[in-house]
C-alpha cells in the first residue's frame, strides 16, 4: 500500500502543477492577445478580389426547390 502512495502522490502533484501552469500561462496569453488584437463585431468584409468579380455580374436569386413533385 505504501508503494502505491509513493508512486501516486508525485504524479498527482505533477498533474496539479501542470494544470495550474497551463491555466495561468493561457490566461496571460489570452490577455495579451486581447490587448494587441481587439475584437470587432459585425458583418465580415469580403476579400478585395471577390468584390471586383461580383460587381461585374448581377447576382441571381437562389431558390430552394419546393419538392411538390414528390407529393
Automatic annotation (TrEMBL):
Top-rank taxon: Eukaryota
Residues that span the membrane, as ranges: 6-26
Positions with biased composition (Low complexity): 50-61
Keywords: Membrane, Transmembrane, Transmembrane helix
Region named Disordered: 46-71
Protein name as annotated: Uncharacterized protein LOC111493917
Source organism (scientific name): Cucurbita maxima
Amino acid at each position: 500500500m505504501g508503494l502505491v502512495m509513493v508512486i501516486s502522490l508525485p504524479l498527482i502533484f505533477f498533474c496539479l502543477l501542470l494544470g495550474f501552469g497551463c491555466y495561468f500561462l493561457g490566461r496571460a496569453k489570452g490577455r495579451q492577445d486581447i490587448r494587441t488584437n481587439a475584437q470587432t463585431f459585425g458583418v465580415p468584409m469580403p476579400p478585395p478580389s471577390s468584390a471586383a468579380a461580383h460587381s461585374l455580374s448581377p447576382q441571381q436569386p437562389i431558390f430552394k426547390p419546393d419538392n411538390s413533385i414528390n407529393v
